[in-house]
Amino acid sequence: MVKPRKFGAAAPPPRQSAPAAPRLSETRRGRRVANQTVGHTNPAAPRKPGLHPRNPHGAGYDFPALIRVAPDLARFVHPSPVGRPTINFADPAAVLALNRALLRHHHGIEGWSIPPGYLCPPIPGRADYLHHLADLLGEPHGPGTTILDVGTGANCIYPLLGAASFGWSFVGTDIDPIALEAAQRNVAANPRLAGRIALRLQRDPRKIFAGVTAPGERFAACVCNPPFHASAAEADAGTRRKLRNLGLSLKREPARNFGGHARELWCEGGEAAFIRRMITESAARPELCRWFTTLVSKDEHVPGLHGAIRAAGATALRTIDLAPGQKRARIVAWSFASESGRLQ
After folding, report:
1. Burial 240-256 (b: 16+ CB within 10 A, else e)
2. Are the C-beta atoms of 224 and 172 separated by less than 8 Å?
3. Cα–chain-centroid distance for residue 206?
């Protein structure tokens, strides 16, 4: 079990033995295992293309079932032009209500909330990341698998989903104390998960792993949803592009339907610079994680990141394509473990 700790406290002494080296695996696995989530998918709906076979969100949104567990969602649901129930995905309140319903129905996560203006993540895509990570790790279950979440945010979504769906333990880090306070409230609202999730404050925004992990500490993997943009203007342009993809008007200044605080959305140099810092720090502590992983939103960044990973001396490299929504993304994963095999 991971014990909750005060945000400003020093990292604990190491307690885990070094994880086994990863086995070589295909970029995409198609094996199915028993779904450990709480809710049920809609059997009449076709699966969304690109989602992981185990992802419980693959059959689309079963609005009658979601409304039964979260009645507040009903006021946001209306018929689409083809007569199917939907919500206005440009309305942040509607997206928040949908997320709460999805988390309760499919994952048994209660009382989930975020402060105004903070990132409200798309649940199907975040679940997809974790199912692919489970494949990469050999589909382990239970608290003996500990994951490091870099930039856990106010939503704390990876620890909550990973603990609920796989029984994993998590350490979530963030540079924003307000975000960590909100994350702790989300953890506290789910007592069955609370002992598996610890939160730590990263006091130096230029650091990724240093300062929040102890010497000799080990994790099965890290996950990361990096700040994608290099400036606030670039983040706003991304919002406008998303609204156009949804066929919505741009007559007034757009509200971000999935929200996002400045620190969550952009940093100097954008995602490429952030991930390069991850790569540099991973090379300095190659034993920290069996697999280092991160989302990459822009395809043009992948070749340069692959080159940086190879130059850092990684022994294994994977790129896993994701297609959970309007925007395509991918997971880039690398390892330095001695038995991980050749680069691919």
Report:
1. eebbeeeeeeeeeebeb
2. no
3. 21
Nearest CA among 305, 226, 336 for reference residue 270? 226
> Does a structural domain hold residue 164?
yes
> pLDDT tens across 216-246, in order?
999 999 999 998 645 455 545 554 555 455 4
Q: Are 35 and 127 in contact (CB under 8 A)?
A: no
Name residue 41's amino acid.
T
Which string of DSSP letters, residue by residue, matches 284-301? HSTTSEEEEEEEE--GGG
Residue 27 lies in a domain: no
The answer to the question of residue 54 being in a domain is no
Please tell me the pTM assigned to this model. 0.80
CA–CA dist 38, 331 (Å, integer): 26
Domain membership of residue 256 (yes or no) is yes
Q: Which domain holds residue 203?
A: 63-335
Domain tally, the chain: 1
Please determine, for residue 44, whether its predicted confidence score (pLDDT) is greater than 70: no
Question: What are the tokens at 308?
Answer: 């940086």
Write the burial class of residue 130 (CB in 10 Å: 0-12 exposed, 13-18 middle, 19+ buried).
buried
